[in-house]
Amino acid sequence: MPEGSQVLSASAGYILLAVFGVMWISLGIFWGRRAKSLEGFMVAGRNVGLALGTATAVATWITSNTTMLAPQFALQLGVWGMLAYSTASFGLFLFAPLAKRIRQAMPHGYTSVEFIRLRYGRTAYVVFLIISLFYGLTWMVSMGMAGGILLEALAGIPYTHGMSVLLFVCVVYTLFGGLFAVIGTDFIQSVIILAGVVAVAVAILTRAPLSEIHGNLVSNRPALLSVFFPAAIIAVFNNMLFGIGEIFHSNVWWSRAFAMREGIGVKAYLLAGVVWLPIPVVAGFLGLAAPSVGINVTRPDVVGPLVAANILGYAGSVLVFIVVFCSLASSIDSLLAATSDVVTKEVVQPLFMPNASDKQIRKVASMVIVAVGLTTWAICLPKVGTLATVLFFAGPLVGSTIWPIISGLFWQRCNPAGAVLAMVLGSAVGLIAYVQIGWYTATLISTAMSFLTVIGTTLLWPRAFDWRSLAGGKEAVPA
Amino acid sequence: MTSVGKRHRTSRIILAGIAALAVDALQTRAEGPPYAVFINDLTQNTNEGHAALKWSGDGDALVYELQSAMEPDFREPTTEYRGADESSFQSGLVDGRYFYRIRARRHESDAWGPWSEPIEVVCEHHSLALAWTLFASGGILFLLIVLSVGIGARSLDRFEINDA
User: Fold this and answer.
1) Segment A265-324, tens digit of pLDDT
2) CATH code of domain A10-385
3) Deepest in the core among A29, A275, A305, A446, taking most CB within 10 A?
4) Is the pTM value of this prediction over 0.90?
5) Interface of B with A in 81-140 (CB under 8 A)
C-alpha cells in the first residue's frame, strides 16, 4: 500500500499496539497466578463456568477470519459468500453435544489427539497429529499475517513490525497464564469485539444506506447479488463443513470442553453459536459496501477494515483497529495454548519424558509455546498468498477428520483402519479438488470421501470398542 | 597537431556529444509523461468472477488511471480507479471478456503518459450443474452429520448407564 493512504498515523497505531499489548500481558500475568499446576495451566482447573465458557468460545471463533475473511467472502462471492461464512456457527452448535460426550468419556483427558490415540491406535494418532499440527500452524500463520496486513493497511506500520509485536504479546501472556490467561482475556476481548461490531454496524448503516449499496451492486457488480453464482453456491456447504471440521478436530475446542465444568459445555457452545452467527453477516456487509463507497480494493483480505475505516473516519479506524486486534489476540492465544498442549502431552512426553513430573511437563509446555510462536513468526515473514489461500489449504485435511471424530465418539463398532483410511483418502482427494477445481470445493469433497470410507469400513469390518478404555487411558489395538 | 592528438580531440567531441544527448534524453524522460505497465500476465482466466490487477510506473509519486472495457479497442471505457495505488481487485464479473488498461501522470502534472498494453480477463464461471450437484452433496453430508450427532447425543444416557 502506498504511503499516505492509511487512515491512522503510524504513531497512533504504535500507541494502540502498546496500550493493548501491555494490557493483555498484565492481565495474563494476573490470571496466570492460578496456573501453578499442570491441570491449571492446560485445562484451567476443569472448572470453567457458563459465562467464561461462552465468552471464550465466542472470542476464539471470532478470528481474523471472521473480521477480515468474511468481508473478503462477500467481495468475492457476494451475498452467498456472506451467508456461507455465517454457516461456520453450525460447528459450534454441533460441537455442543460432542462437548458433553467428550467430558463424559474422558474426564481426565487433555487433548483431541489423545482421544484419537486411545480410540484408534498409533497409526491414526500419527495421521491425526500431522493434520492437527498442520491446521493449527496454518490458522496461526493466517492470523499472524492478518495482524501484519491490518496494521499496515490502517496505520502504515510495516507488516513485519505489526505481525511481530502481535505474536510477541500473545506468546508472552499465554506463557505466563496458560489457559487461565487465555480464557480470562477472551472474556474481555469478546465484550470489546461484540460492542465494537454493533457500533460499526450501526454507524455504517446510518452513513451508507442499503438502497445506495444495492443500486451500486446492481449496476457495477451484478454477480455479487446473483442467486446463480456457481462458485458461491459451491462455497456454502464447503465453508460450513470446513467450520465443522475445524471445531470437531481442533484441540482448541477440545481443551475448552475439558476445561468446562460438568454440564456446562452443551449450553456454552450453543449460546456461543447464537452469539457468533450474526457477526460474519455484519462483517461481510462491509465487503458488499466496498464498491459504493468508492474505495479501490488493493487486496481483498483488507476490504473490511478499509471500508469501515473509510466510512467511519478516524474514530472508526481506532474502533476497527481495537476490534480486529482483540479478535486476533483471542484466537492466537487459544491456538498457542492448544498446540502447546498437543505437542507437550502427545509428542514430547511420550517420546522423550515418559516419567516426567507435572512440574517438568509444565516447563516443557512453556518452552513449546515459545517454539510455536517463533515458528509461526518465521512462516509469516514472507507473506505468502492471501488469508483465504493460506487458511483454506488446510480445509481438506480438517474435513477428513469429521467422520472419524463422530464415529469414534458415538459408534462402538467403527474400524480403526477405516479412520486412518478416511483421513488419508479424504485429505488426498480434497487436495486434488483444491488444485483442480478450487479451494471452495476441497473440504466438501474431502468430507464426502471420508464419510464413504468410514461407513464402508464400519459396515464391512465392524470392530467392537470398550468405551471404558477412553476414561482409563488405555490405548486401542493398533489399526 | 599530430594525427594522434587530432584523433583524441575528435573522440572527446563525440563522447561529449553522446553524453549531452543522454542527459537531454534523461531530462526529457524525467519531465515527460511517465509510462505505466501491468506486471500481471496479460491474459487471466477466472472461474470465480474476480481478477487481481497489478501495475507499476517509471517514477515516484505517480497518479494512475485504470480503465476497463468489454472490447479490446476500448470504445466505451469505464474508469475503474484513479489514484496512487498500484493494484486493484475486481470482483463480481459475469461471464465474458474484460479488458483493462493503465496510464500514469506525475503528481504535479496534468499530462498523462500513454495507455499500457491491455490485460484481458476471461471470465467463465463453473457450470450451474456442477455447482448445484456439489451444493446438494454438501446438504446431504450436513444432514448426515446432524443426524449422527443428534442420535449420538440422545444415546448419551445409554453411555452414562454403561459407564456406571
Assistant:
1) 899 999 999 999 988 888 888 888 888 777 889 888 888 888 887 877 888 788 888 888
2) 1.20.1730.10
3) A446
4) no
5) 81, 83-89, 91-94, 125-128, 130-132, 134-135, 137-139
